[in-house]
Amino acid sequence: MLAGISAFHRRDILRVGGAGLLGLTLPKLLQAEEQAGQGRTGGRAKSVIFLFQWGGPSHVDTFDMKPGAPDGYRSLYQPISTSVPGMHVCEHLPETAKVMHRFAQLRTVHHTMNNHNSAGYTALTGVEPPVDDQRLRESLDLFPGYGSVVDAVAPGRSDMPSYVSFPWQIADGSVTPGQRASFLGKQHDPLFFRDDPNDRAFRLSQLSLPSDISLDRLGNRRGLQRLINQQSRVLEGSSAAAGLNSYYDRALSMLNSTRVREAFDLSSEPEVLREAYGRTTYGQSCLLARRLVEHGVKFVTVYFAPSIGGRSRTDGGWDTHGFDNTRMYEILPEWHLPVTDHTLPVLINDLSDRGLLDETLVIWMGEFGRTPKINANISRDHWPKCYTVLMAGGGVQGGAVYGASDKYGAVPDRDPVTTGDLAATMYYALGIDHQQEVRDNLNRPFPIARGRPITEIFG
User: Fold this and answer.
1) How many CB atoms are located within 10 Å of the residue 97 CB?
2) Is residue 241 assigned to a domain?
3) pTM
4) DSSP class of residue 31?
5) Any bridge partners for residue 163, and if so which?
6) Please, which residues have CB within 8 angstroms of residue 18's CB and are 6 or more apart in sequence?
């Protein structure tokens, strides 16, 4: 490992070439650790695994099916029984059906954003933007993502980063806001990487020494300069480091951390378990997420796909309007539902078997649901007015159902849930006061969640 690297004094690093050369994402993830939030207020979760289903899964074809709805609304899939008496899910989720007793369902999540980027931002932050615009772009006027808020108000206290996201940066035309720290500062951006966990030679580029630089050469100024330059190129496109300060010592110690390296070492997992998660990027990403929370990461975001999808039967997100004769009811059983059914129940059972589920909140959600009425392409369109979110672990009562949609799955019939309520519930599970305030770039105070925790789903 990077023996002796902590012996470098800050002034030695300054001589190497200044803040612009370091380019590491690690220091900015550590700068706020001493800004710990106020005391615990709710659930038992120590970590969150946020599984973001980019593109918008159809709630009425998965978890809130309406078998009594008329033709043209009723799913073309059949409902099947689950481990919860009286609860049904889609026939293409047979393994997921076996673990529904571990999930709470929030069936009335809603907002007003109909475009992917604005809806994605809303789902990733709990805050609606001023306008519903597909051209919405990152701005310091927009709110930070959940993991960045956690990193700012209640960071972890180990050499592990507080917030990690992978394996893609999601976008629809422009990069979707809500994936970074915005006005909280780049030191609260996630440790983000695009390395594919399904690659047989997977390794985290940010924590890998160039092959031609030995540990001994790190004691040499020229060797350190070369290391910094090469890692800067590896991290091209990621946010610049937040400046050289006392936290660089801790960043360098992370590079030297056996615990960090072990956390990202998927090769240490038994092959049978890797196969159980599924040999897909998403499956192996979920396995890596389990390893990261096991090693102390507080917030992990796994993106199902980099694009909204819509035409492919082998990759992409859940945006299945129906184009070019690629109908939703043909695509979902071939790609989205099998991948989900292969991975989600395995993750839940693995966390449970290791005694981690009670302290890990798992969230499965997209940016919106799908129209109750089937369109002319025998598919469904965007629908933010009512959709389903799954939560498991972290003190959540398994088998619970909060809220009810109307007979079509079109609007909340009882107990509506806003995305602000979702944010507050997440922070509640982590023991974070959802009324805490953060300040934007103009020093204006904002509560970290604009809603109330759904305490009814906690056991």
Assistant:
1) 21
2) no
3) 0.85
4) T
5) 299
6) 244
DSSP for 67-81 reads: TTSPTTTS-SSPEEE
Residue 294 domain flag = yes
Nearest to 156 by CA among 272, 62, 295: 295
Q: From 157, 143, 123, select the one nearest 297 (Cα to Cα).
A: 157
Q: What is the pLDDT at residue 247?
A: 40
By residue count, the chain amounts to 459
Host domain of residue 161: 40-204+259-457
Counting the structural domains of the chain, the total is 1
DSSP 8-class letter at 118? H
Residue position matching structure tokens 């770039």: 441
Instruction: Specify the long-range contacts of residues 260-265, CB closer than 8 Å, at least 24 apart.
Output: 260/159, 260/160, 260/161, 260/207, 260/295, 261/1, 261/207, 262/295, 263/160, 263/291, 263/292, 263/294, 263/295, 263/296, 263/297, 264/203, 264/204, 264/207, 264/288, 264/291, 264/292, 265/291
Residue ranges for the chain with pLDDT beneath 50: 1-40, 215, 218-219, 221-222, 232, 235-247, 249-250
Q: What is the pLDDT of residue 312?
A: 84
Residue 319 lies in a domain: yes
Kindly report the CATH number assigned to the domain that includes residue 168: 3.40.720.10
Q: DSSP letters along 275-296, please?
A: HHH-SSHHHHHHHHHHHHHHTT
Say if 304 falls within a structural domain.
yes
